[in-house]
Specification:
Length: about 130
């Protein structure tokens, strides 16, 4: 990571997506600098297009012609965001045990050294 060396932690929240493309668990990760509310990006883990396997997807916005969707983070910035997301996702996967129960509806704060589950009450008081 070069551009985002100041990222202190990430928050990941898992949900079930409903609708025609729902295939299981979906997640949103927020990359933070210092406090939970000091975020640089939110990235979704979901199916994209015709792909059945969920993947991390950069957020998009409508272009000026209101016809096409463009990534909010493009080029090197987009690559750095995805590298950061992948790094925190790998940390989470190494530490999370499936025997801990389902992930749906739960949130975690992930740093390089520590993973802590966040309760809904804690999430509302910290933000």
């Amino acid at each position: 990571m070069g551009l985002f060396n100041g990222i202190s932690h990430a928050i990941i929240r898992f949900n079930i997506a409903s609708g025609i493309q729902a295939t299981g668990i979906y997640a949103m990760m927020t990359l933070c600098f210092g406090k939970d509310t000091d975020a640089i990006a939110q990235v979704l883990y979901r199916t994209s297009g015709r792909n059945k396997t969920p993947m991390w997807v950069l957020p998009t916005r409508l272009s000026s012609d209101n016809q096409t969707r463009c990534p909010v983070f493009a080029g090197r910035v987009g690559e750095e965001v995805l590298v950061s997301v992948g790094s925190f996702a790998d940390i989470f996967k190494r530490h999370y045990k499936e025997s801990d129960g389902p992930k749906v509806g739960r949130s975690w704060r992930i740093s390089q050294n520590v993973i802590v589950e966040i309760t809904e009450q804690e999430a509302t008081t910290k933000s």
